[in-house]
Design brief:
Blueprint lengths: L3 E9 L3 H9 L3 H5 L7 E6 L8 E8 L2 E13 L3 E8 L4 E10 L5 E10 L7 H27 L8 E5 L4 H12 L3 E5 L19 E4 L12 H24 L6 E7 L10 E2 L9 H11 L3 H4 L3 E7 L1 E3 L4 H11 L12 E2 L1 E3 H13 L5 E5 L5 E2 H12 L9 H17 L3 E2 L2 H6 L8 H9 L2
Parallel strand pairs: 8-9, 8-10, 10-11, 11-13, 12-19, 13-17, 14-16
Antiparallel strand pairs: 1-7, 2-3, 3-4, 4-5, 5-6, 6-7, 15-18
Length: about 450
C-alpha cells in the first residue's frame, strides 16, 4: 500500500514565531490531545521539540491500549518541526508541523501527516476519518488558545499556584497556562493527605487558583461522606486563604472554586450572582466553603468565588458517567426532566478562569456556566442527538432516591437555571455558548 498524506491548514492571527513558541512550551501536547482519546504520557526524553527528543504515550487503538513512541527528527524554529513514530500502531507515520508567515501579524499553520497502516488498505478509510476528527479539534483549540493569550500579550506572564492540578479542570487549566508562557506551581498535599498542602510554592506567586476538594457527586451522602466534603472544601480553602494572606507579598488574586449548588433548586426561573442562598446541605456547605476564603479579601487580595456549573468533558465528571448508557441506547431524562441543567464546556471553564485572572474588575461570586442553561430533559435529548442514539428512556425519581438518597435528590432531581451575568458584563467571550455545538466539540462529533 502506498503512503497516504493528510494535510490541514489554519490561518492564525499571530506571528509564526508565536505559534511555534506555543507548540514548544510545556502543556501544548496536553492541549492538543482530544479528551476522547484518553492518552497517558509514560515518559518524556530530551528537551521539548529538539531533534532526538522523544515522547512515550499509551493510547487506545480500538479496545486495546497501545504504546506509541514519537521522536522529533527535525526542529527548525520558528519554521517547522517533524516527529516520526518509532513504535506504535502505524506501519509508518511522519508529522510535519510547518509555520508560514501570512502578512505582518498573521501566519498559517500547516499540519502534514504521511502515514501507512500495517493492514494495507483495510481500515484506511476509518483512519483517515479519525485524522480529520483529530485535527479539526487540534486546530480549534490552537486558534482559541492563541487568541485568548494574544488578548493579553502586553501583560506580564503570571506565576500561578494551583491546587487540584491533577483533576479535570486543574489539569486542563495548567496545560493552558503553561502553553501560554505562564509559570504554574502545582500545590500538592503533604504525606498523609487531608487538606494539609505543601505551601512553599506560594512564595512569590501572582495568583492562586484553588480547585482541590472531595468529589461532591462521588456517591451517597452518608454522614462520613458529608464530613469529608465539608472538611476538604471548607478547611482546605481556609488554610490556603490564610496562607496566602500571611505572605509578606501576597498574591494579587485568589480564585476559589465554588458551585452553583449555592442557589439550591431554582424551579424554572433564571438566576444570576445576585440570587440569595438556597436551602439544603449543598447550599449550606457552599456558603461555608465561600466564607472560608475570607482571609484573602481581608488582606486586600482580589478574591473570586468561581461557582461552577456542570463541566462537560468526556474525560471526567458528569458527561463521562452519562456517555456509556447513552451510547448503549439507555439514555434519557432523569426524574421529571424539568429541573435546570446549568452546563459549561471544559474549554470555556479554562478560558473563564484565565479571564478572571487577567481582569481586575472581577471579584466576589462569578457563575462559571454557559449563557444558555437548559432543562435536564433538553440536555438528554441534545446528547442523544450528538451521539446518534435514542434518549427517551427515563430514570424515574424513585430509582434515583433509592440508589443515591439525599445526593440524588439534590444533584440529579434538583437543579437551577444559572446564567453567568458577571462574566458577560465583564466581556468574556464564550467559545461554546450553545449546548449542541459544545457537546460536538468536546466529543469530537
Amino acid at each position: 500500500m502506498a503512503d497516504r498524506v493528510f494535510e490541514r491548514r489554519l490561518r492564525l492571527p499571530v506571528s509564526a514565531e508565536q505559534v511555534f513558541a506555543w507548540h514548544a512550551r510545556p502543556g501544548a501536547f496536553e492541549r492538543l490531545t482530544p479528551p476522547w482519546r484518553r492518552v497517558r504520557v509514560l515518559e518524556r526524553r530530551g528537551r521539548g521539540l529538539a531533534a532526538g527528543s522523544r515522547l512515550v504515550i499509551e493510547t487506545p487503538v480500538g479496545p486495546i491500549r497501545t504504546r506509541w513512541v514519537a521522536e522529533h527528527t527535525v526542529c527548525e524554529p520558528p519554521r517547522r518541526f517533524v516527529d516520526v513514530q518509532r513504535e506504535g500502531p502505524f506501519a509508518f507515520w511522519e508529522h510535519e508541523h510547518r509555520f508560514e508567515d501570512d502578512g505582518p501579524s498573521a501566519s498559517t499553520l500547516v499540519d502534514r501527516v504521511t502515514w501507512r497502516l500495517p493492514t494495507g488498505p483495510i481500515g484506511a478509510g476509518f483512519a483517515a476519518s479519525q485524522l480529520e476528527r483529530l485535527f479539526a479539534r487540534r486546530h480549534a483549540v490552537t486558534l482559541a488558545d492563541l487568541e485568548r493569550h494574544a488578548a493579553y500579550a502586553d501583560r506580564p506572564r503570571l506565576r500561578v499556584a494551583v491546587s487540584g492540578a491533577s483533576g479535570l479542570v486543574g489539569s486542563a487549566l495548567c496545560a493552558f497556562l503553561e502553553s501560554g508562557g505562564h509559570e504554574v506551581r502545582r500545590l500538592t498535599r503533604r504525606p498523609g493527605g487531608g487538606v494539609d498542602f505543601d505551601l512553599a510554592p506560594l512564595d512569590g506567586v501572582d495568583a492562586v487558583v484553588h480547585l482541590a476538594g472531595e468529589n461532591i457527586a462521588g456517591g451517597r451522602w452518608t454522614e462520613e461522606h458529608k464530613r469529608r466534603i465539608v472538611g476538604s472544601r471548607v478547611e482546605g480553602t481556609g488554610r490556603l486563604a490564610r496562607a496566602a494572606a500571611s505572605l509578606s507579598t501576597p498574591p494579587r488574586v485568589f480564585v476559589s472554586a465554588s458551585a452553583i449548588g449555592f442557589y439550591g433548586d431554582s424551579a424554572s426561573r433564571e438566576i444570576d450572582e445576585s440570587a440569595p442562598r438556597g436551602a439544603g446541605f449543598l447550599a449550606e456547605t457552599t456558603t461555608a466553603w465561600e466564607d472560608a476564603a475570607a482571609p484573602a479579601p481581608g488582606r486586600g487580595i482580589r478574591t473570586v468565588l468561581a461557582r461552577f456549573g456542570v463541566v462537560l468533558s468526556p474525560s471526567g465528571g458528569a458527561l463521562q458517567k452519562m456517555l456509556t448508557p447513552f451510547l448503549l441506547g439507555g439514555g434519557g431524562p432523569i426524574g421529571s426532566g424539568r429541573q435546570g441543567f446549568s452546563w459549561i464546556a471544559l474549554d470555556d471553564v479554562v478560558g473563564a478562569i484565565h479571564f478572571v485572572l487577567m481582569n481586575e474588575t472581577l471579584s466576589g461570586p462569578v457563575n462559571v456556566t454557559a449563557p444558555n442553561p437548559v432543562s435536564q430533559r433538553d440536555f438528554a435529548h441534545a446528547l442523544g442527538r450528538v451521539v446518534r442514539r435514542p434518549s427517551f428512556l427515563p430514570l424515574p425519581a424513585a430509582v434515583v432516591q433509592l440508589a443515591f438518597g439525599e445526593m440524588g435528590e439534590a444533584m440529579l432531581l434538583g437543579g437551577a437555571f444559572v446564567v453567568p451575568r458577571a462574566l458577560e458584563r465583564a466581556g468574556f467571550a464564550f467559545r461554546h455558548p450553545e449546548l449542541d455545538a459544545a457537546l460536538r466539540f468536546e466529543l469530537g462529533r
